[in-house]
Amino acid sequence: MASSFVVGDQFRNKVTELLEYTYSSLPHPLREELQEILDKPAAATLSFSTARQLKSFLQDQGHPFYLHELLEDSSLNLPEFVKPPRNPVLVARLERIKNKLANEEYSRITRNVNAQEINRNGTLADFGREVRSAKAVVVTIFNFLITVIATFACSYMGSQYLFTETTARVISAVIAASVVGLAELYVLVRTMEGDLGEP
């Protein structure tokens, strides 16, 4: 906060005149302060209290110039702001709070992230379910094929007691394998409907 003026040349000229004309009537302490200001080289300062005393004197004496005329080319002397040192306990506490908030933010952002992800499409558990599902499909198809092939083989071998011609034996084996295959497909479809929850 400003507490003084940096006086200019107009102040110096007017105060010099004032000191010459009012040598006897000017109070001694005020005269000494003003003389000290004039004796300083550039950037001399005039305190607010001295300025108030000078203003009172000029009003009491009825002088033809006023304080604002004296300070017309002067400026406020604004002291340089000195930043106070930071309290180390407060700085440490602020750092702890900042780290805690950063950790909470990180936890909030990463709470849905699973460390076991293979890729962006799913986790290892999803991959395991897909493997088990694919394994069940492969086993079902393998069982279907084995059943149809075994039925065909059994019918072909068993039909030798009924038919002597190979063509008749093959046709009877194909019919038996087709019937068993259709029955397997029916059971498979009903099982899949039950798995899917359909009536």
TrEMBL record:
GO biological process, one term: vacuolar proton-transporting V-type ATPase complex assembly
GO cellular component term, pick one: endoplasmic reticulum membrane
Organism: Pleuronectes platessa
Parts of the chain that traverse the membrane: 136-158, 170-189
Subcellular location: Endoplasmic reticulum membrane
InterPro entries the record matches: ATPase_Vma12 (IPR021013)
Record flagged with keyword Endoplasmic reticulum: yes
Pfam family, one: Vma12
Keyword Transmembrane helix: yes
Annotated keywords: Endoplasmic reticulum, Membrane, Transmembrane, Transmembrane helix
Protein's membrane topology: Multi-pass membrane protein
Protein name listed in UniProt: Transmembrane protein 199
Coiled-coil features, chain-numbered ranges: none
